[in-house]
């Protein structure tokens, strides 16, 4: 985050420290809802067709534009009589309502999108002819949609799940969709297994549950019978699947793609998105509670961040390599269950993605956006990765079902921003058809568009030959080596989280054989991990390790890039401090704390017994953002407890205040506390440790502040978990 962005955010936030100076209520708000005046512009294409009732208020009309006189009562025969079929306004209104829903995405149904731009740091003309990478600093508009995979549209944001990270670049040479995930590998190697994988992951078909979770028999049955999924299984049981925010997660194109330059020379490329604010996840117990406290935690976070001028940013990273590298790499670069470690092929940062505009309408944009892996532009091409090849079929097909016809590119969020011209016509909801007599080419009138062999997209002329057969390349068969490398690349707390996640999920599996079969795979990945999970499950005996189809490469060097903790930001920027206040809280201390935290580029949110606010010890009345039972500590990255003595006595009798403290403690958060809050800590069972900081009336908050950059006090975890 640049200093400039920080200060604009601070201004937009009307920070707590500022509030106290001006004694004004908080204006830390997301963008204002549309006013009636805005609606006129949105609906009436400038308002010209609206009749104005009084002053600036537009007249309500039917969809046909007929002014409506009464929108409160349907047309009846007599005061207490039946409703008449003649009431076309009523019928149109209900008809439209009845058809408001479209099928949700079969996967990635729950998502949240935003607009922004991509800007390259340098010209990449030596490696790709793609127009968006030609000129340093030139902006290309983008739309990004983040998503969970398994849950339905209304499921909770903090499900343990892979996150989609789909980017549509509206380039001058057409739309390029980079439809990625926040994990660089996938469960399966061949698209033909996708329906099985997704069936197994989603609700079991007879009972229709569990929703948005993999902790059930069918999922682990499928995984345990599909060794190719083991690497991904390790990734999904890591904290990658419980990100703190979309803003703090990486993105990956997963497959190996091809860049092709103007001379036709090809380079293999893997795409990475690196968040400017570093990586951060929550802990599992926190995720479970966040889903109850705020099922919209991630979408709210993105909405609030953009609304307050704190624009999320990622750098685009490229791993570039050639055929020679591909030939000597011990895995197949066409196998989407494998990474190329960053330590082997460094990630070259070539540009930045900034999200700076929320959607005007969720349905029109986030719901109707249609990403398609086959949307590539000249200079970018596919490889033969069998997963990518299968996806290239699936994404077009699925849009027809979801959006109801072939004209979904006419929907503004899907339409190219560059000029386009073709002879596709008619069909459901056609918004622009060819004009004039000619709707074909070639034609003898010299009318309409023609192909351009120079500018047009040319497929990379890769030589292909072989026997038609259903089979996989030999190197695809190594399923354990990289799983082991991933596990060994984690810090100790992260390894513990992976072990705990396996124990949690497999404890929900009812069939003992499936539990044991999964443990057998884990023993092959790492003996100690397998034994710990076996012990956590209380298996009667440790099973025999699974036999790998190819000998495992046990000594792959650990890759520090795979750890979240090692790639944390060492800063509290973009995070949120929850401050528990009561009547009589020290104004001086609160102000000092808020000022220091906001200077870091972080937010402060006040939690109080009543949302109306509290009266500080200097008589200032300050509003709260949350009432204590609606603002549990899981919503914050760290907390400060600043009740007065009387306030503390009150909070000690309040279960939700005790939970606030106990959860922050159990989730290894840094805690600052005024001396007056000590009895509440004791009552909540939070013993003093290196992650807790007494901050006095003097307002000395320095040591607390410097600790916050670590985000969590991981040493505490061992002390709070005995099982
Ligand atoms: Fe997708 N995937 N997928 N997927 N996927 C869809 O397309 C599919 C895969 C990803 O925000 C669907 O429009 C197949 C990998 C994202 O709108 C569908 C296979 C990766 C999104 C589909 C995969 C992804 C989707 C459902 C196996 C990461 C959400 C709705 C070969 C690189 C895009 C839709 C959005 C969505 C098919 C595997 C990412 C059915 C057949 C690997 C981020 O077409």
From TrEMBL:
Molecular function in Gene Ontology: catalase activity; heme binding; metal ion binding
The reaction(s) this protein catalyses: 2 H2O2 = O2 + 2 H2O
Record-listed heme binding positions: 105, 145, 194, 391, 395, 402
Broad enzyme group: oxidoreductase
Enzyme Commission (EC) number: 1.11.1.6
Cited SUPFAM superfamilies: Class I glutamine amidotransferase-like, Heme-dependent catalase-like
GO BP of this protein: hydrogen peroxide catabolic process; response to oxidative stress
Keyword set, alphabetical order: Heme, Hydrogen peroxide, Iron, Metal-binding, Oxidoreductase, Peroxidase
Entry keyword Metal-binding: yes
Record Pfam families: Catalase (PF00199), Catalase-rel (PF06628), Catalase_C (PF18011)
Catalase core domain segment(s): 61-449
CC annotations in GO: cytosol
Names of the cofactor(s): heme
Active site per database record: 108, 181
Functional note: Decomposes hydrogen peroxide into water and oxygen; serves to protect cells from the toxic effects of hydrogen peroxide.
PANTHER family (alphabetical): CATALASE (PTHR42821), CATALASE-B (PTHR42821:SF1)
Family: Belongs to the catalase family. HPII subfamily.
Protein name listed in UniProt: Catalase
Organism: Hansschlegelia quercus
């Amino acid at each position: 985050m640049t200093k400039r962005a920080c200060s604009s955010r601070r201004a937009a936030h009307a920070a707590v420290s500022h509030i106290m100076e001006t004694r004004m209520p908080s204006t830390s708000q997301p963008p204002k809802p549309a006013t009636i005046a805005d609606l006129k512009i949105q609906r009436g294409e400038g308002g010209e067709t609206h009749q104005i009732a009084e002053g600036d208020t537009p007249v309500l009309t039917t969809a046909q534009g007929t002014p409506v006189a009464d929108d409160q009562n349907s047309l009846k025969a007599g005061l207490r009589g039946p409703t008449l079929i003649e009431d076309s306004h009523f019928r149109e209104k209900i008809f439209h309502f009845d058809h408001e829903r479209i099928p949700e995405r079969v996967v990635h149904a729950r998502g949240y999108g935003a607009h922004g731009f991509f800007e390259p740091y340098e010209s990449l003309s030596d490696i790709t002819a793609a127009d968006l990478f030609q000129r340093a600093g030139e902006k290309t508009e983008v739309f990004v949609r983040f998503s969970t995979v398994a849950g339905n549209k209304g499921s909770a944001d903090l499900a343990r799940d892979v996150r989609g990270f789909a980017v549509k670049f509206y380039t001058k040479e057409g739309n390029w969709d980079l439809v990625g995930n926040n994990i660089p590998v996938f469960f399966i190697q061949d698209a033909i297994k996708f329906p099985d994988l997704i069936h197994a992951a989603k609700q079991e078909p007879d009972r229709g549950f569990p929703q948005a979770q993999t902790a059930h028999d069918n999922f682990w049955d499928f995984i345990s019978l599909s060794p190719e999924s083991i690497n991904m299984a390790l990734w999904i049981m890591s904290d990658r699947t419980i990100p703190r925010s979309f803003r703090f997660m990486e993105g990956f194109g997963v497959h190996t793609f091809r860049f092709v330059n103007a001379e036709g020379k090809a380079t293999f490329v893997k795409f990475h998105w690196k968040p400017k604010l570093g990586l951060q996840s929550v802990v599992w117990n926190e995720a479970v509670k966040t889903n109850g406290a705020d099922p919209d935690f991630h979408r709210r976070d993105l909405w609030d961040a953009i609304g307050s001028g704190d624009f999320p940013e990622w750098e685009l990273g490229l791993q570039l390599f050639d055929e020679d590298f591909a030939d000597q790499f011990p895995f197949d670069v066409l196998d989407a269950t494998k990474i190329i470690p960053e330590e082997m092929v460094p990630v070259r940062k070539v540009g930045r993605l900034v999200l700076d505009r929320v959607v005007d309408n969720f349905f029109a944009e986030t719901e109707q956006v249609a990403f398609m892996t086959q949307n590539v532009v000249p200079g970018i091409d596919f490889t033969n990765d069998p997963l990518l090849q299968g996806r290239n079929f699936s994404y077009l097909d699925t849009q027809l079902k979801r959006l109801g016809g072939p004209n979904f590119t006419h929907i503004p969020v899907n339409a190219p921003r560059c000029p386009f011209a073709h002879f596709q016509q008619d069909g459901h909801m056609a918004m622009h058809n060819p004009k004039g007599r000619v709707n074909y080419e070639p034609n003898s009138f010299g009318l309409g568009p023609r192909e351009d062999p120079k500018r047009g997209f040319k497929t990379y002329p890769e030589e292909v030959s072989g026997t038609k057969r259903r089979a996989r390349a030999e190197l695809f068969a190594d399923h354990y080596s990289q799983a082991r490398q991933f596990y060994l690349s984690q810090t100790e707390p992260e390894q513990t989280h992976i072990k705990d996640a396996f124990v949690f999920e497999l404890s929900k599996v009812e069939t003992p054989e499936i539990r044991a079969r999964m443990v057998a795979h884990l023993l092959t990945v790492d003996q100690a991990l397998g034994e710990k999970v076996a012990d956590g499950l209380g298996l009667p005996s440790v099973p025999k390790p699974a036999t790998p189809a190819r000998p495992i490469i046990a000594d792959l060097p650990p890759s520090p890039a795979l750890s979240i903790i090692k790639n944390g930001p060492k800063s509290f920027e973009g995070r949120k401090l929850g401050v528990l206040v009561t009547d009589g809280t020290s104004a001086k201390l609160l102000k000092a704390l808020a000022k220091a935290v906001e200077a870091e580029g972080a937010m402060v949110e006040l939690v109080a017994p009543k949302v109306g606010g509290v009266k500080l010890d200097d008589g200032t009345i300050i509003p709260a953002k949350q009432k204590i039972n609606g603002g549990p500590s899981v919503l914050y990255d760290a907390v400060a407890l600043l009740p007065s003595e009387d306030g503390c006595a009150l909070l000690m009798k309040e279960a939700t205040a005790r939970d606030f403290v106990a959860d922050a403690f159990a989730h290894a958060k840094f805690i600052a506390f005024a001396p007056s809050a000590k009895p509440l800590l004791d009552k909540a069972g939070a013993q003093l440790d290196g992650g807790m900081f007494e901050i006095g009336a003097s307002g000395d908050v320095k040591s607390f502040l410097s600790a916050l950059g670590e985000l969590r006090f991981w040493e505490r975890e061992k002390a709070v978990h005995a099982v």
